[in-house]
């Protein structure tokens, strides 16, 4: 079965546009024929293959992306070959063609509102190009105003600010710190340039360097959050397995067989402590953290602030009280079981902040309150 | 000298001054300045055209820009011990002076970076090892947990299912996907210790060593 059309279109549309560009300019020659041949191969493979990842890999490993791009460059270069200083140069035609190409590019970009920050330098270049000056003065003015540089990446500061905004809204403190550092170093570089620009290669390597620095910490943070959450789940499940509501709880209830439900409950009751002990040992081996350390760790405090702790405060307190009793062959004290039953009866199992933020029926835009990039940039007038 | 010639001189002046004092674009500054001096010292634009062609000023400029950018990327990748990412810019720096024209330069640089992007993709497959840590922890838990004898069978089944499930993932997804990039690819555990991979695993060396042995034992296909 061929890959979904919309997925293939997302990959091939830029190449189809380049092919159309060449055809609209009525270019001919070997490079154009090669472009057509490669694009035909890409289209054929999209029909023959069924997996998008494999398709994309094949386009890369068979050098199809590369061949197409190289031939596109050759096709365009062939038309520019006559425009050398050796011959009489028609600046008016050069200027007209240059401005026209930028207009085409701007038109394409404007189909995507998210490319908003790339429009201003192009608009300025086109404005200068149409203001009646000569080609060399046009080139000089664009260089002086840094427009050719700016056109490569737009003004990247809004992109970094947006990344910082998302990390903040998502309560991701490590990435927040990373983007704050990136922004600070970007500003330091920008201050060195009279127009506030940062060389694209310098920015590329700055991004790489800062992300490189923070990747280990991001991985560690996520590893701790996941495993700490698991430990909490095991303790709470163990306590709840002794309650009167356990047979009706989705964690154990098997609607097809009361016997299986009973077996599931017994498994949790009898194996919970042994399983917990091994997980706790792994947690301590990995991070030099104990069960008690979880509740004072910055990771936990952040999860509370983010309202990502599903359990109510009372239930967390119950988990802490249950922990000392999690020994193989033991049961939790009756009073703790009774407390859990009360919480269930009074519908206080779930954290209210968590329910308010992530409860059933919430739409993603209500849960994660960050705008699309283009709206963010417009709102901040960046 | 006609006004058009003067205007082009001004344009080339703006270009070379852009790179003045740049720590990254030392070569580009020199070649941009050579273009400026070439056009300034010519009596006409046509004379400059001949000079530019004879001395290959545009080609030298393209090479200088390419070399400066590749040198900078190489410096950063080496500093961060990113051996595989460094290979692309390293090859460009070594070969750029041999290219005969701008089209060859553009084409060959694309090819070098494309090949390097595949090398990087293949190298990143080493990350599959850390992705399997949760599965290895599950097996350890079910093996070591102190439980009544009547539950040992169930835990053994969990272990067997986990191992078979992960072997299936490797057999049916990971290895075929990896071999789309490199037909001879197989998991290289020595690669895990390279700093670019090791730094991404937030556990101690003793743990990583142990998990490597477990991974070989349980998930090798």
Number of helices of chain A: 19
What's the end-to-end separation of chain A, in Å? 46 Å
**Unreliable spans of chain B:** none
Structural class of chain A: mainly alpha
**Whole-number mean pLDDT of chain A:** 90
In terms of quaternary structure, the protein is heterodimer
**Rg over C-alpha atoms of chain B, rounded to the nearest angstrom:** 28 Å
Helix content of chain B: over 70%
Q: Could you give the count of β-strands of chain B?
A: 0
How much β-strand is present in the residues of chain B? under 5%
Q: What string, H for helix and E for strand, traces the elements of chain B in order?
A: HHHHHHHHHHH
Largest interface: chains, residues each: A-B, 55 and 55 residues
SS content category of chain B: mainly alpha
* Main pleated sheet of chain A: none
Query: How much strand of chain A?
Result: under 5%
Question: Overall 3D geometry of chain B?
Answer: rod-shaped
* Alpha-carbon Rg of chain A, integer: 31 Å
What is the distance, rounded to the nearest whole angstrom, between the alpha carbons of the first and last residues of chain B? 76 Å
Give helix and strand order of chain A, one letter per element, not per position.
HHHHHHHHHHHHHHHHHHH
The major β-sheet of chain B equals:
none
Helices and strands in order:
The complex is a heterodimer of chains A (382) and B (221).
Chain A: H1 5-24, H2 30-48, H3 52-61, H4 64-80, H5 91-109, H6 119-129, H7 135-144, H8 147-153, H9 157-169, H10 173-191, H11 200-240, H12 258-287, H13 291-294, H14 298-305, H15 313-322, H16 334-345, H17 352-358, H18 364-367, H19 373-380
Helix pairs in contact in A: 1-2, 1-4, 2-4, 5-6, 6-7, 6-8, 9-10, 10-11, 11-12, 11-15, 15-16
Chain B: H1 3-17, H2 26-41, H3 45-54, H4 57-79, H5 83-95, H6 102-124, H7 128-131, H8 133-144, H9 152-181, H10 195-198, H11 205-219
